[in-house]
Amino acid sequence: MRLDPGNSDGYNGRGYVLARGGHAAEAVRDADKALEVGPDRPRTRYSAARIFAQAAGSTPRDDPADRVKQRQHRERSLELLRDALGALPKAERAEFWRRNVEHDAALNPLRTTDEFRALAAAYAAGAP
Fold it and tell me: pTM of the full predicted structure?
């Protein structure tokens, strides 16, 4: 990223590693930077969604402020996931869901939410 500060894949890659290591604040900064430098494409949004999901899963739940952060990360992840899917041509959405989202362990912190279940019901079937 030092050599190419406009490389969104670099920021998303580092953000994911940070998120997996439990460094949620740094991870989401990298995800936000990836979205800022672009390009604005479904894959960039999806990669950032994975980071926010991991940040939600690794955020401590000890006090109310932690629970708020966890909820914010989860909501941002779901928003980015919806955006990524919505930016794809309709004919590609179900396949993207099956190939990328359905079995992606990075999204496990979202799977129990009603919002994720609604996305799964809609996109796994090829709609909307």
Answer: 0.92
CA distance 63 to 106: 24
Amino acid at 61: R
Residue 61 is given by DSSP the state -
Q: b/e string for 19-57 if b means 16 or more Cβ within 10 A?
A: bbeebbebbbbbbbbbbebeeeebbbbbbbbbbbbbbbb
pLDDT in tens, the chain (128 residues): 777 888 999 999 999 999 999 999 999 999 999 999 988 999 999 999 999 999 999 877 788 988 999 999 999 999 999 999 999 999 999 999 999 999 999 999 999 999 999 999 998 876 55
